[in-house]
Amino acid sequence: MSKGSTMRRTAYTIIGVLILCVMLFPVYWMLNASLQPSGNTLTAGFLPLHPTFSGYRRALDEQGGNLVTSLIIAVGTVVLSLAIATPCAYALSQFRSRWVSIGLLAILISQMIPGIVIANALYTAYERIGLLNSIPGLIIANCASGIPFAILILRSFMLSLPPSLVEAARVDGAGLFRAFVAIVLPISRNSLITAGLFSFLFSWSDFLFALTLTTKGGVRPVTLGIYQYLGTQVQNWNAVMATAVLSAIPAVVLLVAAQKYIAAGAIGGAVK
User: Fold this and answer.
1) Which residues of 142-166 are buried (b: 16+ CB within 10 A; e: fewer)?
2) Among 117, 135, 148, 211, which is least packed, fewest CB within 10 Å?
3) Do residues 243 and 222 touch, judged by C-beta distance below 8 A?
4) Confidence band, pLDDT 50/70/90 cuts, at residue 251
5) What are the CA-CA distances from residue 230 to residues 2, 53, 195, 215, 240 (Å)?
6) 135-158 vs 54-94: helix crossing angle, rounded to 10
7) What confidence tens digit (pLDDT) does each residue in 153-210 have?
8) Burial class (CB in 10 A: 0-12, 13-18, 19+), 48
9) Is the pLDDT of residue 112 over 70?
10) Phi-psi region for residue 78, left (φ > 0), alpha (ψ -120 to 50) or beta?
11) What is the pTM of this model?
12) Which residues of 189-210 are buried (b: 16+ CB within 10 A; e: fewer)?
C-alpha cells in the first residue's frame, strides 16, 4: 500500500471519528446531565465531577410505571405484528399472480400515509368501540406501522427459500401449516428477529399515537411521560435526562444483542 493511500485512509478515519463524535455528543450530554445535581443543564459542567443518582431514583419513582407500560405495548406490538406479517409475507412470496404486485403496492402506499391521518381515523373508531386509553388500542395502532414494514422485510427473505424444502416436508406427510412452522419459520429466524426488532423500536419510540389515543393518565407510555414531564420538572433536568437515558437502554441493548441477526436478515433476501 502506497504512502498516499495510507494517508488518505487515515484522513478518512479521522473525519469519520469526528462525525461520529458530533452525532453522539447529544447522547453524551444527556448522560452527563442525568448525573449532574438538580438544576439547569446549561450550567452543567462538561464532566460529571460530582455525579449523583438522585435523578435516576426520581425518574424510577415517577416514570417507572410509564416504562413498564411502554414495554408491554412494545412486546405486544412485536407479537401481533409478527403473527400477522409472517404468514402474509410467506403467501406473497409463494403466490405468482398479478394481485401480489397490487398487494405489495398497497403495502408500500400504506407506509406513505402520514401518521396523524391514521391517528385521527383511529381516534374516531376507538371512541365508538371503547379502545381509547387502553393498551390493546395502542398495540393495534402501532401495528399499523409495524406490520407493513415486517411484511416487506420477511417477504424479501422468503423469496430466496428453495421450494424444494417445503415440498420435501409435504412428501413426508406434513400439512401446509406444519411445514410452515417446522421449516419456514426456523430458516427465517434472522429476518424474523430483524422485523421484530424494528416493530419494537417503532412502538417504543411512538409519540403520535400515544398523544392522540390517550386522553387520560391511566395509560401513559414513556414518550408521553417525558413530554409531560418537561412541563413540571424545568428545575430538575437531571430527572428528565435520567428518564431519557432509561428509556434508551432497552433499544440500545436490543440493537447490540441482535446486531448480527439484523445484518443477516437485512441482506438475506438480496443473495440467492
Assistant:
1) bbbbbbbbbbbbbbbbbeebeeeeb
2) 117
3) yes
4) confident
5) 55, 19, 32, 18, 7
6) 50
7) 898 888 887 777 777 777 777 777 788 888 888 888 888 998 999 999 999 999 999 9
8) middle
9) yes
10) alpha
11) 0.85
12) ebbbbbbbbbbbbbbbbbeebb
**Residue 78: its pLDDT value, please?**
95
- What are the grid coordinates assigned to 181, written together? 412452522
Residue type, 120: N
Question: Among all chains, which residue has been given the C-alpha cell 415517577?
Answer: 62
Which among 35, 55, 60 has a CA at the least distance from the CA of 46?
35
Confidence of residue 263 (pLDDT cuts 50, 70, 90): low
Distance, in Å, from the CA atom of 165 to the CA atom of 174, rounded to the nearest integer, reads 12
Nearest to 240 by CA among 226, 221, 222: 226
Residue-wise pLDDT tens digits, 116-134: 888 999 999 999 998 999 9
**Mean pLDDT on 93-98:** 77
* Cβ–Cβ < 8 Å for 41, 33: yes
Q: How far apart are CA 137 and CA 73, in angstroms?
A: 9
